[in-house]
Write a structure and sequence with these properties.
globular; 4 helices; mainly beta; single chain; five-stranded antiparallel sheet
Length: 276
């Protein structure tokens, strides 16, 4: 089974469930005001400047999604393509099917101190909870949380989002998964993973920026089979782990203690580093 990498055009899934969205924490992504939504969505669709949303699916979307309108869930500002221009990355919900995580993201560029220009729409890329990091060349790189749910399995990931190659002509930004946690306790399996992301935040590690994340993890029998499914999650013992990554301006590098922790976490979930 393929696992979610947060950018679904790169890794397609065939699951059926509702979207699993996380509440934005104290990170760079903002919950937009109505005034902000009108200003930003005016560059996304007709009527957006009046309502702050797309009442009709824009032509660039796959309008067979779960909702026939598109709403702005979050916005992250930064110097994503170069050190000169200001960009806004909009997380949009609606007008996309489950295979695209019920939405996508639009990249806008601030032009001439008067308006936003639409640069590109990325279906399946959800950016509702991201944190900026100072990247090489005066740009900003993003670290984002991704969530996906289907068939009783909940995947939660942290992934970096870098627009450097996109600025140079690539069709998509680079998406790199740091780790992907799995909770499969409600998937009617004999044994299951029980992993969750408790907290993640930008910290100073040594002399530079870094990431500290706290997760819980365990693996064990559920006491059920596909024939004896229960709506109650199995009780699987878990323990807490602290994961730390140094950011070198291009990538997040796990510390030696984190590398050891990741090896233990892989025993609970072989999809921890992404993959199939």
């Amino acid at each position: 089974m393929l696992r979610f990498f947060a950018f679904l055009p790169l890794v397609l899934l065939a699951m059926c469930a509702r979207p699993a969205l996380a509440a934005t924490q104290a990170h760079s992504t903002q919950k937009p005001t109505l005034k902000q939504a009108r200003e930003l969505m005016g560059s996304v669709c007709n009527g957006g400047a009046q309502t702050g949303e797309c009442r009709v699916c824009p032509s660039f979307t796959n309008d067979t999604g779960f909702d026939d309108k598109m709403t702005l869930e979050g916005v992250t500002y930064g110097k994503f393509l170069n050190s000169k221009d200001t960009y806004a990355l909009l997380d949009l919900s609606g007008c996309e099917p489950h295979a695209n995580n019920f939405g996508g993201s639009v990249l806008l560029r601030w032009r001439g101190l008067t308006h936003w220009d639409l640069v590109k729409y990325f279906p399946g890329l959800r950016s509702y909870d991201c944190q900026q990091y100072p990247a090489a060349g005066g740009r900003d790189l993003l670290l984002c949380r991704g969530d996906y749910e289907g068939m009783g399995i909940v995947d939660t990931s942290l992934f970096s989002l870098d627009f450097a190659r996109f600025a140079a002509g690539a069709s998509e930004p680079d998406v790199n998964t740091l780790f992907m946690l799995e909770d499969s306790r409600e998937a009617c399996l004999k044994t299951a993973s029980a992993q969750s992301l408790l907290d993640w935040r930008s910290v100073r590690l040594g002399t530079g920026p870094g990431l500290r994340a706290t997760v819980r993890s365990g693996f064990g029998p559920t006491g059920v089979t596909p024939d004896t499914c229960s709506d109650t999650s199995a009780e699987i013992p878990t323990r807490a782990y602290t994961l730390e990554y140094r950011f070198d301006g291009k990538a997040f590098l796990p510390t030696s203690s984190t590398q050891a922790a990741l090896q233990r976490l892989l025993k609970d979930n072989p999809y921890l580093r992404g993959g199939s």
